UniProtKB/TrEMBL annotation:
Residues 1-37 are annotated as: Disordered. Residues 18-33 have a biased composition (Polar residues). Residues 7-17 have a biased composition (Low complexity). Residues 40-78 form the Hermes trasposase DNA-binding domain. This is Hermes trasposase DNA-binding domain-containing protein. The lineage of its organism: Eukaryota, Metazoa, Chordata, Craniata, Vertebrata. SUPFAM superfamilies: Hermes dimerisation domain, Ribonuclease H-like. It comes from Dissostichus mawsoni (Antarctic cod).
């Protein structure tokens, strides 16, 4: 059966449809597949590359993340016409972005009085690093902190070696240094620091040095060691963790995990003791349960009543010191008004 000839009515309807859609009936609309296969312009290619660099830098990702098969599948789906640049090209773009940001920060610090702080730390792979941070106030009275350098430091962390790293940073950035901050006033070689930025200031907010000395007192040290063993047991035993959660629910205690402390952060010891004392009843119940804790382990982890009392006494003493450490360690405000009384 032949298709009927178009009438005036059908021709009129087709014409109206063309006017409404703006597409001739003889033309095929672009499908989503055709749209995704459109050619990538140089401008868009650079925009995508900049976004990839931003992803690597902001999220601290390795360049190898961009060469993974799964990531390439995503890029192929969203932008089939884009080819991810080589490792060398990406690294070149990162260095270009680094130099741009460095020039902007250098210009921002120009003719400003800059204070420097250093941090010596060790990575999880036991590589020693030094980080040098600049602190200054902008023309709009905004306190800024910029990390100028994070480099490996295999040599001994003495004042002489630290001073050399500071000198290199000051020369590289052409800084007008107001002061440097250090925490060991009587360390041999501190004269080298004086040569970098006179006068040297001892860190007034290093209260952890005094607090650590207190935590090393024999009775306190024994108590914190005992607490650390209990926490370590619950952090490494899945059976104990499940039993603790069940006891917490039965006793109506907040369902919180025990916290380990870190040797380089004294306030983590306060957090560990505070959390352990909060969970004292469910912890003791789990340790007393023979179906969960073996007799030998229970005896080695048992804390005496006098030790629990000492923990209770330490918590209110350490709490304001922990708060002071948090305030003085802030990056966006000065700690001087909080540490120096106003007369």
């Amino acid at each position: 059966m032949k298709h009927p000839l178009p009438t005036a009515s059908t021709s009129s309807n087709a014409s109206t449809s063309e006017q409404r859609t703006g597409v001739s009936t003889g033309q095929r609309q672009t499908s989503i597949i055709d749209f995704s296969k459109r050619p990538v312009t140089d401008k868009r290619r650079q925009q995508i590359t900049d976004l990839l660099i931003n992803f690597v830098v902001k999220d601290v990702r390795p360049l190898s993340a961009l060469s993974g098969e799964g990531f390439r599948d995503i890029m192929k789906f969203f932008e089939p016409g884009y080819k991810i640049p080589s490792h060398a090209t990406l690294w070149s773009n990162i260095m270009l972005q680094y130099n741009t940001v460095k020039a902007r920060i250098s210009n921002e610090m120009k003719d400003k009085s800059v204070s420097l702080t250093t941090d010596l730390w060790t990575s999880c792979t036991m590589d020693p690093y030094i980080t040098i941070t600049a602190h200054y106030i902008t023309d709009t009275w905004e306190l800024k902190s910029r990390v100028l350098r994070t480099t490996i430091m295999p040599e001994r962390h003495t004042a002489v070696n630290i001073a050399q790293r500071l000198k290199e940073t000051i020369e590289e950035w052409d800084l007008v240094v107001f002061c440097t901050i250090h925490d060991k006033q009587h360390e041999p070689g501190n004269g080298a620091l004086r040569a970098v930025s006179p006068p040297p200031w001892m860190c007034r907010t290093h209260i952890q040095l005094a607090i650590k000395a207190g935590l090393h007192l024999p009775e306190i040290a024994k108590t914190t060691d005992a607490a650390r063993r209990v926490v370590s047991h619950f952090r490494h035993s899945s059976v104990a963790v499940c039993a603790l959660k069940k006891r917490q629910e039965q006793l109506g205690v907040k369902v919180h995990k025990l916290q380990n402390d870190c040797a380089t952060r004294w306030n983590s010891t306060f957090t560990m003791l505070e959390r352990l004392y909060e969970q004292r009843l469910p912890v003791q119940a789990v340790l007393a349960d023979e179906t969960v804790t073996k007799v030998g382990i229970r005896r080695s982890l048992a804390m005496r009543e006098c030790q629990w009392e000492l923990v209770a006494q330490l918590i209110p003493v350490l709490r304001p010191l922990a708060k002071a450490t948090t305030i003085m360690g802030g990056e966006n405000q000065s700690g001087c008004p909080s540490s120096t009384p106003s007369y």
